[in-house]
Amino acid sequence: MSKIEVEPLELPRDAKRFVQAAFPIYADDPHWVPPLVMERKQFLNPDKNPYFKFATIQTFLAKRDGVPVGTIAATVDHKLQEHDPGMGLFGFFEFVDDPEVSRALFEAASDFLRSKGMNRAQGPYNFNSNHEFGLVIDGFDTDPCIANPHNRDWYGRHYEALGLAKAMDWYAYWLDKGPMPARIQAISDRFLERNPNVTLRKIDMKRFEEEASLMYEIYNDAWENNWGHIHFSREEFDFVAWGLKQVINPDLCWFAYVDGEVAGASVTLPDFNQVVKRTGGYLFPFGWYHLLFGKGRIDALRIFVLGIRQKYQNLPLGAPLYVKTWEEGYKLPIRGAEASLILETNHRMRGAMEKMGGRIYKTYRTWEISLEKGGSGQP
């Protein structure tokens, strides 16, 4: 068999090659949602994506006989180094079912991370936990919801062969459409009745920049102590928020206030993956048609964010936010909603999902390995 060549790429020049390399790997996978190449090129452009100001990134492309067979990105997140020094990240790890390919790619990424002083690696993150992350290890039989990844079922086997081990699991819960469970409704009604100082309102899309500021305030505070959280700079947050603006349904996004102070928020998105899948990854010649006219075919939602600021986490503010979202979602022609990604150790939120009739239908995993010579899990 011919030798595998691993080529370091330069962004943004090689972004299209990097993205397109995954397309043949998923050619026969009915549940893959191809990325919009135009959007991915923007995301991978250091001049447009502010994340590159806070990270050192190297992308690689594996080829056999000149044909692309896999990709990987190695990332040193400078904010992560402040509280977890020596931890490097990897992601965009795609490969054909050949252990020589996956090993060659991972060795290239590992060597890069070592050269930057990293002694451990964790992933997959595209690029960190504020972006798409996690490897599907259970639930390959359904499409991923918006802003969640998908991978071939052989990837986990390759990760294990490379010496990677579980660091954390994340769950996606599925909730079928139906009446709001009486228990959650009662908790919400009783809480609001006893606390008239608590109010809720929908997002105002006409004041999107101000609303994004409120959400940013909540996001970093609510998730500060969560496993894997990396501080979001305002510039990065705005880049992501404005990217999602076109898919937001304001009836599904709510803020909660206590005594006039913003205390929490929830964001639920229509599953636009169902539209993007029809484009084949390209807007031309016909992909734009699906984006413009495909909204009516969406039959699922994703509960994307539900966060409560730390000073208010002793209050059951999640219940009224769930109820408001459920009420609005129930009006739509959907079959249900996904709530994701939820830490396996977040028993409070997992309990809420289960009280609402949710069931785990996908499991994502974060993996970790030592990069030290002779260390555990040496690639």
Give a topology summary:
Layout: E1 4-8, H1 15-20, H2 37-43, E2 55-64, E3 67-77, H3 78-83, E4 87-95, H4 99-115, E5 120-123, E6 125-126, E7 132-133, E8 135-138, H5 155-161, E9 165-176, H6 182-194, E10 198-202, H7 208-223, H8 234-244, E11 253-258, E12 261-270, H9 273-279, H10 287-293, E13 300-308, H11 318-330, E14 336-343, H12 347-355, E15 359-370
Parallel strand pairs: 4-5, 13-14
Antiparallel strand pairs: 1-2, 2-3, 3-4, 5-15, 6-7, 8-15, 9-14, 9-15, 10-11, 11-12, 12-13
Helix pairs in contact: 6-11, 7-8, 9-10
Summarize this, please?
31% of the residues lie in helices and 29% in strands. It is α+β, with helices and mostly antiparallel strands and 379 residues long. It is globular and about 70 Å long.
Helix content: 25-40%
Poorly predicted regions are: 375-379
The CATH level-2 architecture of the largest domain is identified as 3-Layer(aba) Sandwich
Strand content: 25-35%
Structural class label:
alpha+beta
- Average pLDDT over all residues: 94
